[in-house]
Structures are given as structure tokens and as C-alpha cells.
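Meet today's protein:

…
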Amino acid sequence: MGRLIKENNIKKAVKELDKEKSITSVSADVNKDLERAVEEILRGGIRRARANNRRTLLGRDL
């Protein structure tokens, strides 16, 4: 599977979300783990859409 998430976008998101500015860097393994988590969320959504006999993945399936 191709990459869904860019490492640079993770760093930008962390900077925006970290209001106290306490996180100064992001480890490379964060990208891998986040990628796995997103893939699992999508797999679950696909299973739910199939179970409901739909060919369209909806937000509520996630």
C-alpha cells in the first residue's frame, strides 16, 4: 500500500496541536505507527460498508 501520511504533515499537525509547545521533535516511528492506525481504521470501515451492502465508504463507517 502507498503512503497515506507524509512525515512533514505530522510535524505540522503536532506543532499546531501542541499549544504548550512542549514537543520539539517527532520520532520516525510515529509515522509508521500512525500509518498502521489509519490503515486499520480504513479496513474496519471497508468491512462495515461491505456488511451494509454498500460500495461507497462513508464517514460513519469509520
